[in-house]
Specification:
Elements lengths: L5 H6 L4 H11 L15 H11 L24 H5 L15 E7 L5 E7 L1 H4 L4 E6 L29 E2 L5 E7 L2 H8 L3 E6 L6 H4 L15 E9 L2 H6 L3 E13 L7 E7 L4 E6 L4 H12 L6 E4 L15 H13 L3 E4 L2 H7 L2 E13 L5 E13 L7 H7 L10 E9 L13 H19 L3 H6 L10 E2 L5 E2 L4 H12 L1 H13 L3 E10 L12 E7 L5 E5 L8 H13 L6 E4 L17 H28 L6 E4 L2 E4 L2 E6 L1 H8 L13 E6 L8 E10 L6 E11 L6 H20 L31 E4 L17 H18 L13 H12 L5
Parallel strand pairs: 1-12, 10-11, 14-15, 20-21, 27-28
Antiparallel strand pairs: 1-5, 2-4, 2-6, 3-5, 7-15, 8-13, 9-10, 9-12, 13-14, 16-17, 18-26, 19-20, 19-25, 22-23, 23-24, 26-27
Helix pairs in contact: 2-3, 9-10, 12-13, 13-21, 17-18, 18-19, 20-21
Amino acid sequence: MLSLSAGIVALLSQPATIKVDAIAMAMPASARGVLDGLDLGPDIRAIIGRHLGGAYRKLSDVALAYGLGARVRRREDPRLITGAGSYVDDLRPPGLAHLVFVRSYLPHARIQSVDISAARSAPGVIGVIASGDLRGAPTFPVSGPKGSRLPVRPLLNGEKVCFAGDLIAFVVAESREQARDAAELVTIELEPLVAVIDPEDGAGADAVLLHDVLGTNVADESTRVWGDVEAAFEGSPRVVRARIRNQRLAGIPIEPRGVLAIANPWEPSVTVWSATQIPHGVRDELATFLDLPQSAVRVIAPEVGGGFGAKLSVYPEELLVPWAAMRMGRPVKWIEDRSEHLQATTHGRDQVHDAALAVNADGTLRGLRVRLTADLGAYPMGVALPRLTRRLLSGCYRLPALQVDIRSVYTNKTPIAAYRGAGRPEAIFLIERMIDLAARELGIDPADMRRRNLLPAFDEPTASISGELYDSGDYPAALEHALTIAGYDRLRAEQQEARQAGRLMGIGLASYVEMAGFGPEGDLFESATVRANSDGAITVVTGTSPHGQGHETAWSQLVAAQLGVALDQVVVRHGDTATVPVGVGTFGSRSAAVGGTAVHLAAADVGEKARLLAAHLLEAAPADIVLNDGQWQVRGVPGRAVTFAVIAKAAYSGARPPGMEAGLESTRYFQPPGMVFPFGAHVAVVEVDPETGSVTLQRYVSVDDCGRVLNPMLVEGQVHGGLAQGIAQGLYEEIAYGDDGAMLSGNLTTYMIPTAPDLPSFALDRTITPSPINPLGVKGVGESATIGSTPTIVNAVLDALAPLGIRHIDPPCTPEKVWRAIESARKRPDR
């Protein structure tokens, strides 16, 4: 019998779902017979057999303890947790000057005057720039879907401001403190205008206009219909209606935004360090803005302390800081403070859905109508997001008919852009709340309501009602797995006992699907280079730009497993446009599915050339060369073998075959033929204090399916973070504005985020449904838990409040909001 490698033996100690994932990825196809001697059970054995067959066999050529599917600790962490990482604010080049922006203190106003004379004469000041100093410079680039209305956005405003935080001027000084002091001396006279706060009011014909040239505040409006919506509603036994809001949120990464620029006026050229998710996007916009070739603009994303979409956009500040460095001939740095982040960095969500769901008496769905009103804030940075929401509104369900009316409106608030999930969480929140509302009106258990409507399992692309090609999925299996782990039937029995005792215990469910792996649309490929040096060490150059995801670890595992080298022999380079000439970036849960696949393909090319070199060195046919536990050996002759280091040395010497080009490297670009669709099911248990409205999260179960898993520890880390953000939306976080447009949550004493004591230990598990869209079979997991957790939490709170007749509360379910709902319910005459 074949013997198992130490790596596979180590994997057998992992939980069952991890066994399936890791062994399927690591076991050589020739070792299939070994399964007979393992205590894995027939179901697990069958799944492993399926994963080892067909198109996936090439992924299991080597079984190393650190290979694909293994639980490898993040290689990045030692430098990060010991403070050895280098962030933008750690960089202090000689001659460094500091920049501070002067922003509007009103949400909507005409600028009467800007007096910078006192600031210019303040101690340490190098320069003060207002809009007049930018005459002739390009305006800030704006974009949106075809047909949308897009205003011009000045880099510095000289005539009008459209949100509190809009840019008016900036000061450059020798120190940050001097720059701040001088900024306080800039005198701005503003003529207040009526602020547009409510997007529905702003869409009215008589509304005050933010951008006069457009003649309206409506940026985008459209209607899409799939199926026979009229028939679905005309004959429906029950129509469930609700107005459901996704509140406005802030990204709150640990590190706020920051930019450092050093200009070389003699070339000319500029090097920029930016805490961004898209260094290549920043480079391209900067090159256009500064009228330089892309080769003269170098952008480096060093360590980036989180992004969550807030660092996905190119901002005016990222153009103005390099402009200042070139104008003043000094290195210039700007670091955002936390209040500035809350005020000026893009927000997320902020959609209102007026929905009607037609259902049959047995709970099966007939049709859904949604009027979606999106608050875009002052400028077009997230105009496309409501269209993403529309595409996913059917969720995991068989929905025969769907109509969606979109209206996106400019308001005098901070612009909306991507935030973890970017349009998809809004869709799943809506459909999952409507499913729960329908179950309640029909007297059907929420789990049964989902069972009756979930799409059946499929392993080839299947179209949703809106035309999205879901790549693969088994939504019923994920739901049943989550219910089993949670002990759902037992929980319902406990709930009955709690209610009899006067306690408000709630159980929340959600089944979710999301679209990820952005690539097919917008030509969003990803690049990777895998290069072996003559000593066998390997450099991976990736177009992805991590900010917490663990790419250095995952990409090292991919390459090490394919080439049979130790993990510490692989170095991953990223985030520097001089090192990585072409890349798209990290967002939309696309890194593994697109960037990881590019790495995999490049490593496979290197592996094929390594096979030819090994065959030449061992005087064997290439087809007879196999990789086994780090040795490139002749099949069946373990004694005839060479290491990758020997092969690499041959690639750069006369030992290679005649006619073979020197070197051992490959560059690949991967653009997937379709999107990937991670999915899962979550269960939450909460208890509500009827006297205070406080919600205690007692238990949380998260079952997520991201296809094949490259490293379970990385997946679990992403799920933990995603759950924290989604639960926070359900219970804590909201950017709030007053009627006058003043931000009411402008710092972390008023914008509430959870801390460790607020969250329980999560119960995590997964199902594994490989994607047919990429050769790795991966789907992405960065946003999944956020998307699934918010509706789960809100459903749990409303389930707890159901005995009081409370039907709906928009998130966040804060103690005050819940208490008010309870008090209102107690005062109803029917109680």
